[in-house]
Amino acid sequence: MRFRVAEQHKLSNAHSPFRVTQLNGREVEWTNRFLDQQRVRGVADSTLRSYAHDLLHFLRWWAAAHQTAAITKETLTESTFLDYIRWQAGQDPAPAAASINRRVGTVERALRLEFPDAPRLFAPGFQNWYWRQSRLGYGRLRPALTQLRVKTPKRLIVPLSIDEVHRFWHSFRTTRDLAIVGLMVLHGLRSCEVLALNREDLQLSELQIRVLGKGKKIRVLPLDRDSVKLLDHYLYLERPPQCGLPLFVSLKGPSRGHRMTAAGLRSLFRHHRQSTGVRKANAHRFRHTFASDMLRAGISLPALMHLMGHAQIQTTMVYLHLTPQDVWQQYARAVAQLTRPTPPKQL
Q1: Catalytic choice (86, 256, 266, 284)
Q2: Would you kindly state where each structural domain of the chain is located, as residue ranges?
Q3: How far is Cα 260 from Cα 253, in angstroms, rounded to an integer?
Q4: In 155-189, which positions are buried (b, 16+ CB within 10 angstroms) versus exposed (e)?
Q5: 319 is catalytic
Q6: Average pLDDT value for residue range 5-26
Q7: Cβ contacts of residue 318 below 8 Å, gap of 6+?
Q8: Across 87-93, average pLDDT
Q9: Contact assessment for residue 268 and residue 251, using Cβ atoms and an 8 Å cutoff
Q10: Does pLDDT of 3 surpass 70?
Q11: Has residue 233 got a pLDDT over 70?
Q12: Is 190 known to be catalytic?
């Protein structure tokens, strides 16, 4: 039995536009009930799409391993997720640990919603209650539940070098493209945040921009004067007239004047990566470069947290990495300020 994720936009606001269905169009009810619940909670469409594909991945594994798509309380055992993780880890190439953990977490939530009185889904020893405090040691203790997860390697942030940014930047020919890269390199915007910008979000006279981030949270950011010049040039000389709300639109072709799509942005970056040889130049790597440059310039963590649109300061702390050169420079600066003993004068 084969399954797929179908996109339906004619449903009510209480239903997810992404549905897990069989090839004949029949819906898989337990997966879509979970997606509908997340829709009611106000989860973004991009997250719903991710949830749907995670559930689809598990459903395909289940059908192949058990020769049936039916999942009941009796068929769920303590080894269900262990078997699912073993199967993923045995693939070639194996998915990233973060991907495995995300899939398991999504499926676990959906199955607990469907079968609240089902037996334990984790093998003994993988689940117990304990009290947890935040990583920075503040706030009240909270109950936490250990979960069956794959150990993820420590995340290493590798920003682009000055030469790589220079080569990639100077490969663009339109101020629209330069403005897009500038908002990522000089202001740390995500690609989805750049594409979601509207004309009214710009406040060029006040050197500000309004950004709609994750969780539909709005933050107001300062604009660099070079970015203001690029945006002003794009608005008055390149942007087609009567484009409506979208800020960045297609400049040619049948979609001229329509909002630039994520696929269009990926295609643009892919072309310039090939032409410049900067293989690691992508939207999120520019965001990493911005955060690293800001920290080296001495910005505080709370200020960077606001600029990046992070909900937790622990996420911002990922960028607190020091190279040997950074350590040497800070050591030399500190040593220069030390009070040194004055040698005795010789008679």
Answers
A1: 284
A2: 3-124, 162-329
A3: 12
A4: eeeebbeeebbebbbebbeebbbbbbbbbbbbbbb
A5: yes
A6: 87
A7: 155, 157
A8: 90
A9: no
A10: yes
A11: yes
A12: yes
Q: Does domain 162-329 have CATH number 1.10.443.10?
A: yes
Among residues 39, 103, 285, 310, which one is catalytic? 310
pLDDT higher than threshold 80 for residue 155? no
* 284 is a catalytic site residue: yes
CB atoms near residue 342 (< 10 Å)? 6
Cα-based torsion angle of the residue sequence 75, 58, 122, 150 in order, rounded to the nearest 10 degrees: 160
* Residue 234 designated active-site: no
Architecture of domain 3-124: Orthogonal Bundle (1.10)
Annotated catalytic residue, options 214, 233, 273, 321: 214
Segment 165-212, tens digit of pLDDT: 999 999 998 999 999 999 999 999 999 999 999 999 999 989 999 999
The residue from 103, 190, 272, 288 that is catalytic is 190
To the nearest whole percent, how much of the chain has pLDDT over 70? 87
Res. 334: pLDDT tops 60? yes
- Of the residues 120, 287, 296, 345, only one is catalytic, namely 287
State yes or no: is 271 an active-site residue.
no
Concerning whether 310 is annotated as a catalytic residue, the answer is yes
